[in-house]
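How a chain folds remains the central question behind the approach discussed here. No coordinates are needed to read the tokens, only the vocabulary itself. For completeness, the protein is quoted in full, as a sequence line and a line of structure tokens:
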Amino acid sequence: MTHSVQYRLVDPVAMSRIDAAAEASGLSIISLMERAGQAVAACALRHYPEARRYAVLCGAGNNGGDGFVAARALRDAGADVAVFVFGDMVKLKGAAQQAHEAWIEVSGDIGNQSLAAFTPRDGDVIIDGIFGAGLSRDVPPEVAAVIRAVGHAGTPVVAIDLPSGLCGRRGVALGSAFKAARTVTFVAKKPGHVLMPGREFCGALEVFDIGIPRRIVEANVGALWENSPDLWKSYLVHDDVETHKFKRGHLTVFAGPSHSTGAARMTAMSGLRAGAGIVTIAAPEEAIPVLSATLTAVMVTPIDDRDALGDWAEDERHGTYVLGPGFGDLEKARAFVALLKDRALVLDADGITAFKDDTLKLFSLFTEDAPRIMTPHEGEFARLFPDVHADDTLSKIEKAQAAAKCSNAVIIYKGADTVIAAPDGRAGVNTNAPSSLATAGSGDVLAGICGALLAQQVPAFEAAAAAVWLHGEMGRSLGPGLIAEDLASAVRPFEAFEARARTG
């Protein structure tokens, strides 16, 4: 798989490997730091030219080194600059020490003040270079006090790499963290930039290329990306003149009793609009009249029990299923999943809840390799993977990866920062979903899109990632106030979004 470095996510451990490999290759670390600091200064001048003073807060690591370069560049541009330091500058080494010495050379003996002496002034812009993405402990009280003071004053913050106090791996505040207006990071985004609530702490994010070759980056990162079409569009089926409905797959969506068929209907319509050639709702006999009266393009068939499903599944064209939306009967759900264990399957809602008291039974059914996707929201994830969910040392990405590995299924861990993870460790974080998608029935639409892509023989991880991205784009196009029926009606294959982008 080729995927643009633009969408790579690099965790702090991988970033340390990249830095070390860059130095080992002969690259000058002070030159890289110079470019980083200059980029930060340029961002501050570009977005805050009216600043009365740039207050640069520097720690005793490489993040502080970037800050000293930024301070010198701002001073060279004629700005009023004050530098406040946290930590023992005697402990500085390497490139950070050189950057500090260059700053002292142009600023003189009064070039540094203690962070404890800093008080935000009217007209200040903060350049935050105290801690970088590798912070793994709560911020010290002195730093927390400054963070509070800056927050109360409403002073804009330009963060270097990551707002100080934010965990670069988990995207959570370590005791306290700056809420930056803008963040300038280098080489690639970090998980903390895209996971919630870190995404909100970072403000507007700029990724600056400081000159580390792509070969070094690619050699030292894992299979982790921000979700984008580059990740999966080459796997999608592209229609040609020889296509036909069976070639595009037959999707079966299970429905519950007559009083709760709405979820399955939205799932089925979404699957049909997302490109499945044929969609059939399989429902209890008593629900058939309701479904027949409310559906036209979607077919309906009665399936009341395991025997009826066995007969239906004997037809090899019936290869893809969605089970869960509005299903209701948890005992029957368990029986149906057992029968479909080797088929392409999307397990959602009641299909997940059915196994909350016997998760090992579900995982034992999924020992064979087959295309399958599970779509838990936060509560369902906690019920299905209680130990993983309770481990606060793990990021949401790591939790999804652990869940995918133990269940042998692709996991869509839903939320504002939906994570898609495969059993082999690949993972993507979705960032295009608007808050308006948090509405009843939205997940039923997502399940239908997943099912349609599986029916078209898209591999499970790529199908899940594409479905989540398309779901987000549809939500963005509809805007605030959308309801699930709007979303189901708006579903279109990816080609429609490509065409819209080309025509503007």
Observations:
- The chain has two domains: 5-222, 238-503.
- Residues 3 and 231 are 6 Å apart (CA to CA).
